[in-house]
Structure formats: C-alpha cells, structure tokens
Amino acid sequence: MPVHLQGPWSFLFGRLTLHAIPYDNVIILFAFTLAAVAGIAIVLPVLYFKKIPYLWREWITTVDHKKIGVMYIIVGLVMMFRGFFDGLMIRTQQVLADGPHSPHFLDASHGYIPPYHFDQIYSSHGTIMILFAVTPILTGLTNVIVPLQVGARDMAFPYMNALSLWLTAMGAALVMVSLFVGDFSDAGWSGLIPLTELPFSPGVGVDYWVWSIQISSIGTTLNAVNMIATIVMMRAPGMTWFRLPVFTWTTLSTNIIGLTAFPVLGVALAMLSCDRYIGTHFFTAGLGGNLMLYTNLFWIWGHPEVYFLVLPAFGIFSEIIPAFSHRPLFGYTTMVAATFAIAGIAWLVWLHHFFTMGAGPGVNTFFSVATMLVGVPTGVKVFNWVFTMYRGRLTFETPMLWCLGGLFMLLAGGLTGMMLAMPAIDYTVHNSVFVVAHFHCMVLLIAYAIFGAVIFWFPKVFGMQLDERSGKLFFWTFSTGSILVFVAMFALGFMGETRRLDYLYDPHMLPLLIIQEIGIGFYGLSVLIFAWMLFVSLRNRNTSLESDPWGTSRTLEWLTRTPVPFYNFAVTPQINARDELDWRRRSGLDLSHPDRFAPIHMPGNTMIPILIGICSFGLGFGMIWRIWWMAGGGLLAIIALVIFRSFQHTPGYMLQPGEIAAMERRTAASGIIAEQPSRPPLMEAGAH
Amino acid sequence: MAPVKCSHVKEHLSKWLTWPLVGLALIPLGGCGEEFRLFYPKGPVAAAQLKYTMIDVGIMLLIILPTTLMLCLFIWRYGKARKAAYDPDWAHSMTIELLIWGGPIAIVALLAVFTYESVIETNPYDPTVLRAPAGTQVPAQAPLEIDVITTDWQWFFIYPKQHIATIDDLVVPQGRVVRLRMTSTSVTNDFFIPQLAPMIDVMPGMQTRDAFSSDGPGTFTGFSADFSGAGFSWMQFSTRVMSGDGFSSWVAGVQAGQAQPNRGALSYAVFQKLAHPTLNIGAKPGYFASVDTGVFNRAVTDALNGLTYPVPADLTEKMAPDSGPSNQRRSSENGKGS
Amino acid sequence: MAIHQRPATPDSVLWQHEAEAHDDIATRTLGFWLYMMSDALIFAALFAAYGVLDQTTNLAGGPGAHQIVHPLAGFWQTLAVMTSVFAYSLASVAMKMRSQPGVILYITIALVLGLVFIGLELGDFARLIALGDGPDRSGFLSIYFVLIGTHGLHMAFGILWMLVMIVQVARSGFTPSIVARLLNLRMFWQFQASVWVCVYAFVYLRGAF
Fold first, then answer.
1. Are B85 and A391 within 8 A, CB to CB?
2. Does residue B11 register a pLDDT over 90?
3. Which residue, A59, A354, B253, C81, has most beta carbons within 10 Å?
4. Is A500 on the interface with B (CB under 8 A)?
C-alpha cells in the first residue's frame, strides 16, 4: 500500500539527500545566515554568563503558567518576525514582477523569486502568521493572565500546560527547519485540494505543512482543555460567573471553539496524510474521492479558528479600554452574550469561504445571512467599547493607542467583511487581494490587540514598564505601514488582482504596488523600533513598581505584587465585585495586605514535556522524510514517556509561611526573571 | 505613568484622522482609470454585481459611518485633558442596549433581502439578469455554448457547435448569452473575467457552470483566480468580444485553419498530450481547426477514473535552470516576456 | 504600607486563608470529559466523511458497504465490547470495596475482551486487503478503514492503559492519582463502546439493510 514516490529513498535517511539542503540558493543562504547570527547572538551570552542551568531549571522544565505563557509569546514573536520577512519578500517580488517588461534576477523569469519558491513563501507566511505567531501569542497571553484573573495558583494541569507549549514550539521548529532542509508547502496556508495530493505536490513540502500543524494543534487542543478546566474549577472564592473579567470570558469561549474545532482540522489533515502515505482516495478527484470534503472539513475548522483568534483580542480590548477610560466596561452582560453569540455562529458560516464552488442559491443565501449575523454581536461589542469611552477620562498610553487603532481596523474589516458575505459581491472579489486585505484587517486588529496586551501586562510579568515614547513611535510606524499596504491592497482588489501571483500581468498596478512596498518598509522600520523599545526600556528600567503600575487597572491580576511572584497570590483573595481591584481601590482597601500566611503547595518541575516535545519533533521529521525508524522511534518514545510519567511520584513541594513573608517583603526576588529563592531540591521535599 | 499632555493627544488624533483620509482619497483618485476593472463592468452580470456592491456598502455605511464618527468624537471629547463630564459608574442602559442590538439586526435583515435578490440575479448557473425582460418578445438567440477545460496550466475553450477550439483565447459575440461548462484535468482553478463573468471554481472530475453576456466589443483579461501551481500566474486568457458578424468570420477563419498558430485537429489523444504540465509563459494562444466530440466528457470521466497528469518534482520544488528536463523549456522561454 | 488608611474591615472579606478547596479528582475528571469532547468531534468528522463518501459514486467499481459488512460479524464485536465494559464496571465496584485483586481481575477480563474485539477487527481488515479491497481501492473503502481503524486505535490505546493500570494498582493500591486514572479510564472505555454502537448502527446495520 505505501505509495509510489518520485525520487530516491533509503532506509537510513528516507527521502533525505544532500540535495534537499538548498545551499546554492542565495536567498535561503541569506536567511540561514540571519538565523545563524541571531542564534549565536542568543546562545553566546547564555554560555558566557553560564545561564544554561538557569534556563533549564527556571524555564525549560518549568510548569509555571506565567513562564510558559512568556515562552509561548517569545515563540510567537520569533515566528511573527519570520512571517514578516515572508511578507516583505512577497511584496518585493510583486513590485518587481509587474507587467511583461519587468526585470528579472537570480533564477526567476520575473522578479527575483521563481514561482515554486514564491509559492512556498506565501504559504508559509499564512501558516506561520495564523498558526505559529498569532495563535501562540494569544495562548501565551491567556496562559499568563487568566489564572491571575480568576485568582488561581496555576492552571488546572500545570504539567499538561508545559506539554502544550513544547508541542506548539516543536511544530514551529518544523516550519523553521523546512526553510533549510527541503521545502515547505506551496499549496497555500489552507492546503488547496487537490493541489496537496501527491501527483501535484510530490515533494516533502505538504508533509512539512501537515505535520507542523498536526503537532502544534495537539498542543492547542490540550491547552484548550486546560484553560476551560482552569476557568471552571480554579476560580477564587467569590469569583462567580458574572464577576469574571471579560478577557476570561472570551478565553473560555475561544477555548471551547478550539477544543471542538481543532479535532476537525486534525481529521482533515490525517485523511490527507492517508492519501499521501498509503494511497487512499479521500480527496482525490477520481476513484471515489471527494475533494470538496476536504474544503468543507478545513473550513469547518478554519472559520471558527478566525473567531478563536479574534475573541481573545476582543477580550483584550474589553480590559484595556475601561482601564484607560477610567470607567467600567459598558454593557458587561451583553458583552458576554455577544461573545458567545459569535462563538456559536462561528460554526454556521464556513461555506462562505467557497461561495464560488457553485452551490445553489438556497445554500449560498443561508451561509451568506449566517455570516452577516456575525456582524450583529460584533457591532454590539464595538458600540459597547465606544460607550465605555463615553463620559470617561481617556488617557492615551500605548496600550490604549493600540486598542483604538484596532477598533478602526475592525471597522474597516467589518465593512469589507459584510461585502464579502454577499455572494454576488464575493463572485467578483473572492480569491482576489481584496479578500486578502479584508482578512489582514481582521488579523491586524488581533495583532493590534496583541501589542496592546503585551505592553499593558508587561510590567505585571517583568516588573518594569516598556518605554512609552518609543512605544508610541512603534505604534505610529506600524499603523502607517498597515494603512499604506492594505488601502492599496483593497484598491488592487478592485483592479481584479487575484491572490498568490508571482507575476502580475497589468503594468497599471505598479503605482499601488510601490505604495505597498513603502508600507512594508514602514513595517520593517517598526520592527527595528520594537527592538529599540525593548532596549530603551531595559536600559531605563524602573523596577520598583506598585501592584498596579498604570494606576487605573480594574481586575484581579493587578492585585498581586508586581512583578507577580511565582506563587501568584500570597493568600488567595476573596472576590467581592466584578472589578475587584477597582472596588478595593474605591473602598480604600487596595493597599491592604494579608497579615498572615498559610503554606502553599507548589508543583515540581519536570523534564518530561520537553522530552515529549523533542520526540514529537522526531516523529514529525521522520514522517515528513519517510524515515520510518525515526518516526516509529519517536512515537514509541512518546508513549514510553507518558507511561513513565504516570509512574512518577510528583508531590511538588510546600512553600512555608516564613518564606512567603520574606519574599513578600523583597518584591523582585520572587518575580519570574529571578531564580526562585527557596526552591527545595526537585521532587523530594514536601509531604503529601 | 504620567498622563499624556494635551498637545500630545491632539497630535495623535490629527495623525489618526489624516492617514485614513489620505488612504480613502487614494481610491477615488486612482479610480479614474479603467484598470479598476470592477468599477467598469462590461456585461449585465458584472453590472448587477457592481450594483449590489454599492447597495451593500451604502447600507453598511449607515451604521459604520455614525459609529466611526462617534468613536472619533468620544476620543476627542473625553480626553482627560479636556475635562469633560466624567461618570465613573455608568455601565448599563436598557435603551442603548436595545438600540445597539436592534440596529445591527435591522441592517442585517435589510441586507438579507438584497442578498437573496442578488443571489438569484447573479447565480452563475442561471443568472436571471441575462433573461430577456418579461413581456418583451425579442427573438432570443440561442446561447453560445462553450466547454472549458483547464489543465496545468492552460485554458482550453471548446466550441462544440462550431467544432473549433482554442488555447488561452476566448472569443465571444457581443450581446449573446454565453454558457460555459467547465472542468479540470489537473487541480481546482477558478474562472474569472472581472468585467464580464463571476468567479466559479473549475474542478477535476466535476462540472461547473458559468454564464455571461457582454455589452460591447473589446478585449478583457480573464484568468484563473484559484492557485494551481507553478504556472498559475500565467494562466491568463484574453476575452475578445466581437460583433456577431465578426464572430462568425472568426469562427470560419479558425475552421479554415487561418488562425495562427494553428494546431490542427483536437482529438482526445492530442488533448492528452497537451494536458501534461506546461508552463505557457506569455499565455500564448493556440487554435484548433476541428475538435472531436466528447473531449470534454472524456476529460470528466477519466478524471473520475483516477487519471491525473502528475507534476514532475522539479516543477514544484527545484525549479532551478539545471535541475530537470522541463526546465529546459522554461529556460528557453526565460526572458521572452521581458 | 499605609496601614492607618485601612478601615476596620475583617481580613476575611479580602483574603481566603483556608487551604484551597479545589477538588483534584473532580478537576481531572472534568479535564477528561473535555478531552472526550474533542475526541467526539474527531468521530463526528469521521462519521460525516463516511456519510459523504458512502455513495455509489464513491465506490469506483469497488465493493459497497452491503458487500463487506455483515451484521452478525459486527455483532460478535459488539458483544465483546459490551461485556468488556461490563467487566470494567465490576472493576469499579471492586474499587469501591478497595479490593486490589478484584480490580486487577476484572480489568484483566476487560482487557482480554478488548483484545478479542481488536483481533476480530484485524481479521476483517486482513480478509478485505487479501481480496484487494484495501483502503486504496476506493473513496468508500478509504473512509471505511479509517473510521473503523480510528476506533480500533482508540481501543488499542485503552488496552495499553489497562495494562498500565493493572501494574499501578498492583504496585501502589488506590492513591488519589490512581483512582482518578481508573475513573477516567472507565469513562474512556464506555465512550469507546458508545462510539462502537454508532459504528455498528451507521456502518454495519445501515450498510446491510
């Protein structure tokens, strides 16, 4: 049953040969050099300052939800940088390859990238930005914030949390490896069928795409289980459902989506793998396959996935806008209702991704109207944020700027989304860059929320604020880039430019393409400013911050000390109001601290998650290159590790009241950067 | 964190307002040219689509514009420095909540009506805009039927009644309804002529349909809108709309083998040779003076029976000049377009 | 600390000094329910795919459901699965009575019956593949093998889990972790039995009649 493959195969290395390493490609050589230099720049100081034991003990084997969240965000930001580079290359290729008289460089007949390479770039751009940048960053943010917002010590399953992280990270690692060993998929981020079938994509690209997504989405599903269980079971006393912060509500709904949607993606990709590995006929055009089945399954995941990403962003808006309006959120109850309405309707709209497949008027109308219905709760949310600002005292710190910018993005994305929802309009712009511009507005709004959230919660986690001046410069450069790139892209859509073109037939598009290129230049500038912002903030850091450095925050996470100690709350808070911190502040109780401490049970570190992660990387890599011994070994090792873990006695350890009192006095000593002062030897101390 | 100074706020706001306005200005400024194809429909279907675009945007602006204005106003009015009225508690109002739920629902209800109307009017399988208005007894000309087959990476247009076929060149008579039957021998493509015909997927082993007619003569670019592999960017065809007589003489010319380059007769065997992956750089046309019947149906049946035309590995991953036979073709054509 | 600003509020309004009352077993059970929810979605997607691919156009000249499934063959498998679930329920009863040998005995019976189930299924698969009707024959056979095979994989995983639990119960008795695992395994096993009932109804009965 194993299928016939083009090219050689050996037992030891599978399909992997030296030719798979594109050492002769100038662009990839440059990317490799960049990655190597960046890698060395990180590794050398670590070695020089002898920080490997610290990294191993405090980060890699940690089960602390805050550190795991931070690592998620770091993975996401690194991948976002990679995705940005892809975007830069796409834009540059298109501006160079416009019209029959366009120049050509390197191996390309137009522009500087040949089609097969260009197709990989845009496919990886989409895959990375959605699944390996935005998803991990949002997962990371919810990981850091939600347990604090509900007053929990940690997630419900700290060990599984670490496992989710390392699975996601290994998926991302596979995508990065595909840059230097073999190819990535050239069939679009959504895996256009039957282009992903073996006859049309005989290489390893699609396999890279499948396995990186499979592995990381198992991580995402486990995280969804964890997050829901945390919100349901781990709330502090008094934290009733209708006192939950809206960010926690959106996290809950988003993870319900994640829990139910990702398995469908897994099934679709597994069927595709069966087609590619054992020659089944799920999605082939002939021999009883049904290619629209893939498209349906993919978008049954794909559209909820959009709301999986956008709902936490809405939650972030709902936290930041009240904080900087100095007012409670307007219409809390409807906000929650709208959140769940969006999550519910998310399941009824998938077909609008292929109105052009030729379904009848009845079907198209149903999905069209269902799609438009999403606009109702979304509109409600926008109004709620606007009315939150009404009679407020708005201050425009950087997080607030990002949220307001995100609102404008949402308005633009909403307007164009309602256009696309109507099939008659969709027939003219479906698969055109108009659609691309529309969903970039939506994803950008998520990115805006992310930047706002990172800056907003940064002091809570690291005990220092980010520089406001460079932060604002970052915002304005980034926004200028967004406007230049995407306004021009909407216009190009009206010119009929379709997606994924490595060569553009119409020289009239050139002015707009140049505007886009300038825009992406602004994006590039903003990346530099972001790095500068981090540097300046670190140089001028003020680490003696109060619990609530912004002074106007409202929710529970700001109650504990800044930086948040590794045990979160010295004593579990009793919740009395929806905006607990605001309530305490106005009752004059915000400076009240507990007068006595009880022992705190902390989970111990474990190296099993990272080991399982590494084995899953081996499993994926072995399957991609059809190195069966490596894939089988990886799978067996994973099973063995899981069983081994179940035999381990993992009592954790107890933090004694005296230690807690001492750490509560020295605020920075228990932050997440610090080595935890009183950690007993792993897995020994503590009676249970 | 010190509060932001008043001048800062103004500066930010002015920036905020300037950029979108500059951006919005770009569209109408650039929109003068006919290269904004969607604004210049050349047939009833495309015109109906533009009409519904305008209606949809108009209705949506009813809610988007006030919201945007309100947002800008509140940002401006309630900046801390302006010392406007401040209410630290107000968080609920039944009236407002009814309005903010009711407003969008009303808008969606209105849009739903137009949606249904538009779906019927522009349904690619049977667009009612192409029907003669009720009551008028225009001697209806029978629609022109064309079979469309996409391969990797070319378009075959077969005129079954005229017994001719073309590659990458669609020629139709002005004013007459054109009905297309489409299939693919390779992967999914998407038929699209921005100024004439709506997008419809072209899928292997399946038949889809599309229909359009045109207002006047001209040449309009059409292409595949759904990515199909390495040669995708070159999957273009010119759509030439001719007068009725011009079309007839063109057909006669092709039948006589005068259209160049003339590729002779299109039997299914010839088609199968041509269906292998070909990068048609420059989208060069080709003409067939005669066509066997049933090429289209056999293409569908064979696809259903599992026939594929596999893409060689070097066209998907190592498209470097020295890595495979098909690249010789590519290299020889390298630079021809430039 | 500006202690003097504090009004005379009882400390208990602000802080909960008692040890946390999170029920570990309940949390783990909820987590497992959530996992099964996602698992159910996997099967839902597979059943949907089965519904789509179980048409005459998807046979591609190969055999259809009524030619390859026999309700009686499926019946023996159903019997094996159901008695296995029953045996596991007896193990749960034994756990309540804190009887280590009882638990081990009944789980072993459940395990053996599970093996019988998988053996019957593998026999079916081998017979079909020998006839040339493997998963690469047609779209319908692809989904037939993958749907039933996915369920079979779950069953195999459950059997492995039982093996581990037998060892753990024998070694450490009933610690909270082990009890939580035994409870989750019971849910898992019953869930797989329910999925099998769906398979039996949807594939075997619907195919045969």
1. yes
2. no
3. C81
4. yes
